[in-house]
Amino acid sequence: MTPIQKPLAVALCLAALLSTRVVAAQNVSGEDLYKQQCAACHSVQKDAPQGMGPNLLGVVGRPAGSVVGFPHSKEFKNALKGKSWTPELLDKWLENPQKVAKGTYMMYQQPDAAVRSSIIEYLKNTK
Length: 127
Ligand code: HEC
Prior knowledge:
CATH class: Mainly Alpha
CATH topology: Cytochrome Bc1 Complex, Chain D, domain 2
Distance between the termini: 56 Å
Bound molecules: heme C
């Protein structure tokens, strides 16, 4: 490779990487995104054993922090007291939980609005 070809090859690889990320958001189902990004900590199965995070079965529309037996952080309880998980609140939460409840235990951020919206659509159908 000549010295000029090398940066070009690097740039092409980067372009390929970036475009797969975009395609991923368009072609991967909400369920698959959920499995990739949430399932390590959250279950959507009824009566599943407690994970690192609370069960998310039917989370859209339900009062925040209402999973019986899950030890929510004090920060979570204070910030979300009396609120319910509307799609809008979930969207803010997934973008950056620390902005909704500073100090929450959930370590996750999703800057891509299309990915957030697919996951929220999937969660609406878990009942
Ligand atoms: C690294 C583990 C982890 C990942 C990954 C994760 N979460 Fe969480 N999540 C948590 C923890 C821990 C809490 C409890 C937060 C607290 O009590 O401060 C939580 C809380 C929540 C809540 C509040 C539920 C309630 O009881 O009201 C929602 C909604 C949620 N997560 C959605 C998601 C979604 C959707 C994803 C994937 C896009 C995700 N989380 C990814 C760990 C995680």
